[in-house]
From TrEMBL:
Belongs to the class-IV pyridoxal-phosphate-dependent aminotransferase family. InterPro entries: Aminotrans_IV, Aminotransferase-like, BCAT-like_C, BCAT-like_N, Class-IV_PLP-Dep_Aminotrnsfr. Pfam families: Aminotran_4. It comes from the Bacteria. Gene3D superfamilies: 3.30.470.10, D-amino Acid Aminotransferase, subunit A, domain 2. GO terms for molecular function: lyase activity; transaminase activity. Pyridoxal 5'-phosphate binds at residues 58, 159, 215-216, 252. GO terms for cellular component: cytosol. This is Branched-chain amino acid aminotransferase/4-amino-4-deoxychorismate lyase.
Length: 282
């Protein structure tokens, strides 16, 4: 395992670098005990974080949805700079930003940044594509829009269900998951946004379903529209994935992972992945 890692915490108004093996939260931190917090995963490429701003915007929105006092963009940028300080430019990394409710009762939140190499599996899936299993999430597609306590659209630390879904997919022989609503509408992956190409248009499900607004999907759709490739927010179904010219799961670190198999059924990519990657690289 590559041991290159770095950690910075926000203490008394400053970013403090700490050795990666050193504990940085107390056992009573509510992020640990309740998953009561939020995070972001930011790609580090050539020693830089080209898309940090979009992640900070989403982090601020997640914090507001949870009623967490956010330390502000400047604090995050200082923590990111601290973990990047000795990072080798040739090593692609994933920088995670965590904000938890700390000890609660109005005490300061816990804010920290950590940086580690991109896992080999992620790089392999980006290069080779992925098989997905579609799994029901058990909520109607329109339910979370009117249920703020379910924290739709917030990137919370409560990812146990997302991780369990991925383990379940692995048990089924698949790499990843596409969640569906109670009535069979497409939602998102446990760590990614679903995008499919059909009828000369790029499609993605509506955020009103409670899915996370993907920064990579937003970047792709902006670049595609500027390039003359129409985009649409579409309430799709699993049948739409089978019928599509191409399907990708998009996320900041893995990028556009082409879906070559849906529920055991092989599918192509219509030779469109190269254009998607080229648009994301702009
Ligand atoms: N949806 C979920 C649930 C996620 O966890 C992620 C990524 O972290 C995404 C979508 C994709 O978001 P982004 O493209 O900003 O990485």
């Amino acid at each position: 395992m590559n041991e290159q890692r770095s950690v910075a915490v926000w203490r008394d108004g400053a970013a403090v670098t700490v050795p990666a093996h050193q504990p940085v939260v107390t056992a009573f931190d509510l992020g640990l005990g309740r998953g009561d917090g939020i995070f972001e995963s930011v790609a580090v490429v050539a020693g830089r974080t080209p898309h940090l701003a979009a992640h900070l915007t989403r982090l601020t929105r997640s914090a507001a949805l949870l009623g967490l006092p956010a330390p502000g963009d400047q604090a995050w940028m200082e923590m990111v700079a601290a973990v990047l300080a000795d990072w080798p430019a040739a090593l692609e990394g994933v920088c995670r930003l965590f904000l938890t409710r700390g000890l609660g009762d109005g005490t300061p939140p816990t804010a920290l940044a950590l940086l580690a190499p991109v896992p080999a599996d992620t790089l392999r899936q980006r290069a080779e594509g992925i098989s997905v299993a579609t799994l029901g999430l058990g909520v109607p597609a329109d339910f979370r829009a009117g249920a703020p306590w379910l924290l739709g659209g917030a990137k919370t630390l409560s990812y146990a269900v997302n991780m369990a879904a991925q383990r379940h997919a692995h048990d089924l022989g698949a790499d990843d998951v596409v969640f569906t609503s109670l009535e069979g509408r497409l939602l998102e992956g446990p760590t990614s946004t679903v995008v499919w190409a059909a009828g000369g248009t790029l499609h993605t499900p509506p955020v009103e379903t409670g899915i996370l607004p993907g920064t990579t999907q937003a970047r792709l759709f902006t670049a595609a529209a500027a390039d003359g490739w129409p985009t649409s927010v579409t309430p799709g179904t699993v049948d739409d994935l089978h019928a599509a010219d191409a399907v990708w799961l998009l996320s900041g670190v893995r990028g556009a992972a082409v879906v070559h198999t849906v529920d055991g059924v092989r599918r192509g990519d219509g030779d469109l992945s190269r254009r998607v990657r080229e648009l994301l690289a702009r």
